[in-house]
Design a protein that fits this description.
With 155 residues, this protein is α/β, with parallel strands linked by helices. 26% of the residues lie in helices and 26% in strands. The longest helix is centred in the last third of the chain and has 14 residues.
Length: 155
């Protein structure tokens, strides 16, 4: 598993921004981590890298926020509220197989709905309030290659 240590919000956003050029329609990125771990901050960087100028907000209460103004659409999902079911009614496969990038927070509640190939990023807080440790779990060759390129570019 590949890891990065990021020392502030700007570094977290920068990783998302650097990842954006490598992404293509239909890519699914799963973000794991506690509340306040940096998932939405990362997504803001990803959106900036896609050329999306909209304000990126956590989709906690809306479940899915769609941003259409970039190189590719961005579908930011927060599945936490579906802990007790209901995901099958959202048509998630249409997003996952669609024309944009799907970023999914709390994906453990929809594991059966996820495609076989996706990138999981785990966000972990450290003792330093500003520092986060990111670990990447690629599922599929394309995402293995993407992580290698991202980490090589980060050094």
């Amino acid at each position: 598993m590949t890891q990065l240590t990021l020392h502030n919000r700007e570094a977290t956003m920068a990783v998302g921004k650097k990842m954006a050029p490598f992404l293509q329609a239909g890519d699914v990125i799963v973000l794991n981590g506690d509340l306040g771990a940096g998932k939405t901050t990362f997504t803001k960087g990803l959106a900036a890298g896609l050329g999306i100028s909209d304000v990126i907000k956590s989709p906690t209460f809306t479940i899915i926020r769609e941003y259409q103004s970039g190189r590719l659409p961005l579908y930011h999902m927060d599945i936490y509220r579906l802990e007790n079911g209901g995901a099958e009614d959202l048509g998630l496969e249409e997003y996952f197989d669609g024309d944009g990038i799907s970023v999914v927070e709390w994906a453990e509640f929809i594991e059966d709905e996820l495609p076989t190939e996706f990138l999981a990023i785990n966000f972990k807080r450290t003792d330093d309030e500003q520092t986060r440790e990111l670990s990447f779990e690629p599922h599929g060759r394309r995402f293995e290659s993407l992580v290698k390129r991202l980490v090589a570019d980060h050094d």
